[in-house]
Design brief:
The protein has 12 helices and 12 strands. By secondary structure, it is α/β, with parallel strands linked by helices. An 8-stranded parallel β-barrel has the order 1-2-3-6-7-9-11-12, surrounded by 6 helices. Strands 4-5 form a two-stranded antiparallel sheet.
Amino acid sequence: MSESVAAPPAAAIFGLGGLALTDVERDFFRRVRPAGFILFARNVDTPAQVRALVDALRALNPDIDPLVLIDQEGGRVQRLRPPHWRFAPAAAEFGALHACDPHAAANAVRLNMALIGRELLDLGIDVDCAPVLDVPVAGAHDVIGDRAYGRDPHTVTALGRAAADGLIDAGVMPVIKHIPGHGRAAADSHLALPVVDTDLETLRATDFRAFADFLRPPGAPVCFGMTAHVIYRAIDAERPATLSPVVIGDVIRGELGFDGLLMSDDLSMKALSGPFDARAAQSLAAGCDVVLHCNGDMTEMEAVAMGTGPLGPRGLGALVAAQAIRRGPRAPIASVPAAEVMVINRLRAVA
């Protein structure tokens, strides 16, 4: 952030309704001063349009230089799609390669995510809500499915680190999700609140293990984190991780050792209930640094803003870290088409 900041930004990241800012959105964002914005397919048309939208968002409060996020995992979760952007493979495809050749899989993932990162940074987007570090289990809901790199923590950690490194190579901050683990959930948290009854030792050995190993030095990438709207009865039988001081304090910050910016998953998802100001306030009180609200509904956003205070010191430091990555040196990719061919050819080796 620049030295001329008059006041800290709000501890919130908001979506918006369409391809350009409305007057109502412009006035709201100028007044609330959110720490960032998140884009979805409804906000995307052409590269020129996205660049103009990102520039307009950053111009609202230039003293903040807010984050601009997107979900660009590859596979079924990518907001930027052909014909203007490449269609990136799903995470599970790299997991299949890892079973045959771990080194080639890690290299392919890193290159794939560097290509994604280059596309994002070209648009001014500096945060990608990826990689997914969830570890699916048999019988779980398919909301994670092929978005995961594998069904064992070792594969997920190895390829998740490679993915995060690839984004950073391109100047984009990664977001690990959904901490401490959504892979065992039997419901889609977009639609209902998942409740996991698994004992703590099993969770530590599987679901939590991928995150713990990812975050363990040496070599742990700089990253943000996104919470899971999941109840883990063995830890907090009443509250999902996003709203639980026990899960965030004892597990995410404690056992797993995550010390970066922690954002809630989308507050408008059906896993959560109650007034939106209370959802925001409870998330921040539980230990999230910033809350995420995605659907662009102005009435809901006004309520979220009422429950949100200023970004704290850790969040302010995270803004600076993301800006440093965006403005820092880039790992060279001599030829983007050739690099894409390399990724696809490696995956075809196990097809």
